[in-house]
UniProtKB/TrEMBL annotation, chain A:
Keyword flag Transferase: yes
Pathway assigned in UniProt: Amino-acid degradation; L-alanine degradation via transaminase pathway; pyruvate from L-alanine: step 1/1
Catalytic activity, EC: 2.6.1.2
Subunit structure: Homodimer.
Cofactor: pyridoxal 5'-phosphate
Enzyme class: transferase
Record has Acetylation as a keyword: yes
Gene Ontology process terms (BP): L-alanine catabolic process
Gene: si:ch211-217a12.1
Protein's recorded name: Alanine aminotransferase 1
Domain of life: Eukaryota
Molecular function terms from GO: L-alanine:2-oxoglutarate aminotransferase activity; pyridoxal phosphate binding
Pfam families (UniProt xref): Aminotran_1_2
UniProtKB/TrEMBL annotation, chain B:
Family: Belongs to the class-I pyridoxal-phosphate-dependent aminotransferase family. Alanine aminotransferase subfamily.
Family matches, as InterPro entries: ALAT1/2-like (IPR045088), Aminotransferase_I/II_large (IPR004839), PyrdxlP-dep_Trfase (IPR015424), PyrdxlP-dep_Trfase_major (IPR015421), PyrdxlP-dep_Trfase_small (IPR015422)
Upper taxonomic lineage: Eukaryota, Metazoa, Chordata, Craniata, Vertebrata
Signal sequence, renumbered to the chain: none
Name of the protein this chain belongs to: alanine transaminase
Quaternary context: Homodimer.
GO function terms (MF aspect): L-alanine:2-oxoglutarate aminotransferase activity; pyridoxal phosphate binding
Metabolic or biological pathway, per its Swiss-Prot or TrEMBL entry: Amino-acid degradation; L-alanine degradation via transaminase pathway; pyruvate from L-alanine: step 1/1
Length: 491, 488
């Protein structure tokens, strides 16, 4: 007789069911690839099979994937990657010398001169050194120690690893992690998975999504009633909101973290994506050190970067790193041990990161072409940011903060009461209902604001600014038309 | 103490405030002995004098690091995918170009730089399904049951995470082989699941005994809720290739006892010994008929890191899920979406592994030549290793039937055991440390994998090139004799 039958369960039930699986995993949500996107994929399949729709293609403006939207890779990067993949090409005079030089250096740092060898778990040493030098150049000379650099499988990997380290305690002592609302839902997903307490602080929509230390304080004090807040996460430039925090704000956050004894996590993957006049990226590391040793020798911080965004858009390579400041040496040893279990981040991604931090220099053959490509990508993004903001703000019922940086717009949409009621009837949040309609009617896939978090009673959606300019204009036009129609229908 | 007499504030993140389960994690393959090996390498490169000229890292299953060459065809396709301009280059064969085009077409914007679907590129999963069908003599494989992963480790961890629930006596218990590949113990420690050890039988070539499975299970039921059974075949570190009958017995056992089966099959092409053959769990399951194939929940894992490819750095892998509850599958799909997707170069590589050059294609001959050369070299080194180690008094080595390692038993003299224990070290760690310092050879002590109480082992890869391996084995022999002498 089988074990389940012996236990009195009628018929053999499965071992792994919704009831017997990890409960934390059930609480995980990730809207960027959630139900709306699944429906979008389904519709794509239907279109392929010839099903008639009011549109001829699905536009996936839900995810920050630049290449999928037609952005071209940086030629130099791909040349080096090809050379690393198939070193026979080092004999091929089609490839410029600077590409070959970097390929040789990377291969020289790999076991058996092959990118197929595992690397050190913390990442290839010379790449960590290059990352450290990049950080130093970026931060006006402030020293970076390669030993505090950890290469990772995209920034997501490092963020999850740090959160994992930080989570402890039970009940009132359980680790609380402060995250912005709206946030990039990796954070909420990771916290759910880890069973940590999510502590929300609201960004100020009326002031261009700026961060208020008063709000941080409010949130922290409320949280202290029921958990042990130990971490403060900030995304700058922001996702989904696109705000680029000013230097004063960053100083205030650092001061707050020190006063309140919080571990700072600075997600800076959009550091090159800054568009608006008067805005500038200030790295947390730089500001921290410029605030003097009282802060720079005490505040514990991890900052994150990636090869997925900026001007590279190499999402598929899963390249990234984190720099860890003022970490307790015993904890550092634990961190090293933890990352060793997964052996190493993907070596092609590590190689790519090396090129990002060590791009062609002015005296090198590929420099001109590299700069041209980089500039073109960033200029196109800046133009599209501006265009998006302009067009949305001309639609009655849509208000859009300036897209100061990153790759998204997160406009506030006014939804008629009737629509909100209808959504409720169907068991949906109003902005999800709205977005689903938009998908079915126009083939445009966005992510509802509820997937990122928003103030009660407000609704938003996140759209990427990545489609090529002409296509983007069409998309914006269609959304405008849809919004007016939708508002009309539910008036 | 700071200048004004104030005691500096404790850090936010300390050994006491950090995640306690992480503290329980150990991973011997890259543990303290390897850290020391890296240190020694540094010292050597700085010109320090040592009793050896180089450190030989025979601790990790990294073929390329030990000089194995990549498969030319695979790297050609990867180069074409990385830099599609090369599609115009006549030095690349047509079959490489056609695969590259196919892969690129399934990528967003025809670029490997796009995120893929979280479950992995559709056409690659289809190719994986066809590979599985061919491998398993036609037993059907649904591509929707295939999940591409960041190495097999990723898939294994994801499945274990899904399986862990409950508290105290209902806490999920997971049965793992002793000796095991320490990803399993590390994952279980991190997840706070209960590790249930079942011992492989060293006297019978590390075979698996159902009565031992039963013993372990019955005992575990006193203190946890055993729900999963993990098996590594071909075995790591032990190298045994389980017989078909054994696999049937395990499946029967899992069915009877209500256990989720996890079959780690990353070494499926690494089978060397006469009379041994790889039998996939999936195939055997289906050949046992619907009573089993309709009910037993199974996940099997494969990787691009081992076999004849050895492409560890690409982090390519997949898992095939059989008979998973639909609701749980939806949860799994949701869970993997948070990390977006596995690395696309690794997915592309996996596509080539499951869809290699066919007879009649330009690259076929060369591909088969390279593949055969690598596998036969491994087979020879497996034999050599077993042979040489068995001539050493105090070392006995089971046949290396498959995988990439030998896991010989070593006799450590009482005096050495005592000295180790006094130092707070495992005796085989003590032994391996001494070997490292005296010969530059880095192995992993058996205690890192688990072993019967009072026995000692080490794991050594068979990966160095034959001539170097021979030297290595001779040095191990010399060291063992000296060590035994010294502590007699």
């Amino acid at each position: 007789m089988s074990q389940p039958a012996l236990n009195g369960v009628s018929g053999p039930g499965k071992v792994l069911t919704l009831d017997s699986m990890n409960p934390n995993v059930k609480r995980v949500d990730y809207a960027v690839r959630g139900p709306l996107v699944q429906r979008a994929v389904q519709i794509e399949k239907e279109l392929e099979q010839g099903v008639k729709k009011p549109f001829t293609e699905v536009i996936k403006a839900n995810i920050g994937d630049a290449h999928a939207m037609g952005q071209k890779p940086i030629t130099f990067f791909r040349q080096v990657l090809a050379l690393c993949s198939y070193p026979d090409l080092l004999e091929d005079d089609k490839f410029p010398e600077d590409a070959k030089k970097r390929a040789r250096r990377i291969l020289g740092a790999c076991g058996g001169q092959s990118i197929g060898a595992y690397s050190a778990s913390q990442g290839i040493e010379c790449i960590r050194q290059d990352v450290a030098r990049y950080i130093e150049r970026r931060d006006g000379g402030i020293a970076s120690n390669p030993d505090t650099i950890y290469l990772s499988t995209g920034a997501s990997d490092a963020i999850v690893t740090m959160l994992k380290l930080l989570v402890s305690g039970a009940g009132r002592d359980r680790t609380g992690v402060m995250i912005p609302i709206p946030q990039y839902p990796l954070y909420s997903a990771a916290l759910a998975d880890l069973g940590a307490v999510q502590v929300n602080y609201y960004l100020d929509e009326d002031r261009c999504w700026s961060l208020d230390v008063k709000e941080l304080r409010r949130s922290l004090h409320a949280a202290r009633e029921h958990c042990s807040p130990r971490v403060l996460c900030i995304i700058n430039p922001g996702n989904p909101t696109g705000q680029v925090q000013n230097r004063q704000c960053i100083e205030d956050v650092i001061r707050f973290a020190k006063e309140e004894h919080l571990f700072l996590m600075a997600d800076e993957v959009y550091q090159d994506n800054v568009y608006a006049e008067g805005c500038e990226f200030h790295s947390f590391k730089k500001v921290l050190f410029e605030m003097g040793p009282e802060y720079s020798s005490t505040v514990e911080m991890a900052s994150f970067h990636s090869t997925s965004k900026c001007y590279m858009g190499e999402c598929g390579f899963r390249g990234g790193y984190m720099e860890v400041i003022n970490m307790d040496p015993e904890v550092k040893a634990q961190l090293i041990k933890l990352v060793s279990v997964r052996l190493c981040p993907p070596v092609p991604g590590q190689a790519l990161l090396d090129l990002v931090v060590n791009p062609p220099q002015p005296d090198e053959p590929s420099y001109t072409s590299f700069m041209k490509e980089r500039t073109a990508v960033l200029a196109a993004l800046a133009e599209k940011a501006r265009l998006t903001q302009e067009i949305f703000n001309a639609v009655p019922g849509i208000t859009c903060n300036p897209v100061q940086g990153a790759m998204y717009t997160f406009p506030c949409i006014t939804l008629p009461q009737k629509a909100i009621a209808k959504a409720k009837e169907e068991g949906q949040i109003a902005d999800a209902f709205y977005c689903m309609r938009l998908l079915e009617e126009e083939g445009i896939c966005l992510v509802p604001g509820s997937g990122f978090g928003q103030r009660e009673g407000t609704f938003h959606f996140r759209m990427t600014i990545l489609p090529p300019t002409e296509k983007l204009k069409i998309v914006l036009q269609k959304i405008r038309e849809f919004h007016l129609r939708f508002t009309q229908e539910f008036s | 103490m700071s200048e004004n007499g104030v005691v500096p504030r404790a850090k936010v993140l300390t050994i006491d405030t950090m995640n306690p389960t992480v503290k329980n994690v150990e991973y011997a393959v890259r543990g303290p002995i390897v850290a020391r090996a890296v240190e020694l390498e540094r010292e050597l490169s700085e010109g320090m004098k040592k009793p050896f000229a180089e450190v030989i890292k025979a601790n990790i299953g990294d073929a390329h690091a030990m000089g194995q060459q990549p498969i030319t065809f695979f790297r050609q396709v990867l180069a074409l995918c990385s830099y599609p301009e090369l599609l115009n280059d006549s030095t690349f064969p047509d079959d490489a170009k056609s695969r590259a085009r196919r892969i690129l077409q399934s990528c967003g914007g025809n670029s490997m730089g796009s995120y893929s679907a979280s479950q992995g590129i559709d056409s690659v999963r289809q190719d994986v399904a066809r590979y599985i069908e061919r491998r398993d003599g036609g037993v059907p494989c649904d591509p929707n049951n295939v999940y591409l992963t960041t190495g097999a480790s990723d898939g294994i961890m994801t499945m274990l995470k899904l399986l862990v629930c409950g508290e105290g006596m209902t806490r999920t218990g997971v049965m793992i082989s002793i000796p095991q590949y320490p990803l399993y113990s590390a994952a279980l420690a991190e997840l706070g699941a209960v590790q249930i050890n079942y011992y492989l039988n060293e006297e019978k070539c590390w075979s698996l005994d159902i009565s031992e499975l039963q013993r372990a299970l019955d005992e575990a039921r006193n203190h946890c809720n055993p729900r999963a059974l993990c098996i590594i075949n071909p075995g790591n570190p032990t190298g045994q290739v389980q017989s078909r009958e054994c696999i049937e017995d395990v499946i029967r056992f899992a069915a009877k006892e209500g256990l989720f089966l996890m079959a780690d099959e990353v070494y499926q092409d690494n089978v060397y010994a006469e009379g041994c053959q790889f039998h996939s769990f999936k195939k055997v399951l289906f050949e046992m008929g619907p009573e089993y194939s309709d009910t037993v929940e199974l996940a099997s894992f494969h990787s691009t890191s081992k076999c004849y490819m050895g492409e560890c750095g690409f982090r390519g892998g997949y898992m095939e899920i059989i008979n998973m509850d639909d609701d749980v599958k939806a949860q799994l799909t949701k869970l993997v979406s948070v990390r977006l997707c596995p690395p696309v170069p690794g997915q592309a590589l996996m596509d080539l592994v499951v869809n290699p050059p066919q007879p009649g294609e330009p690259s076929y001959d060369n591909f088969i030549k390279e593949r055969s050369a690598t596998l036969s070299a491994l087979a020879e080194k497996a034999k050599l290793t077993e042979q040489i180690l068995n001539t050493v008094e105090g070392i006995s080595c089971n046949p290396v039937q498959g995988a990439m390692y030998s896991f010989p038993r070593i006799i450590i003299p009482e005096k050495a055991v005592k000295e180790a224990t006094d130092k707070g070290q495992q005796p085989d760690m003590f032994y391996c440390m001494k070997m490292l310092e005296e010969t530059g050879i880095c192995l992993v002590p058996g205690s890192g994998f688990g072993q019967k109480d009072g026995t000692y082992h080490f794991r050594m890869t068979i990966l160095p090139p034959r001539d170097k391996l021979q030297i290595l084995l001779n040095k191990v022999q010399e060291f063992h004799q000296k060590f035994t002498q010294h502590y007699s």
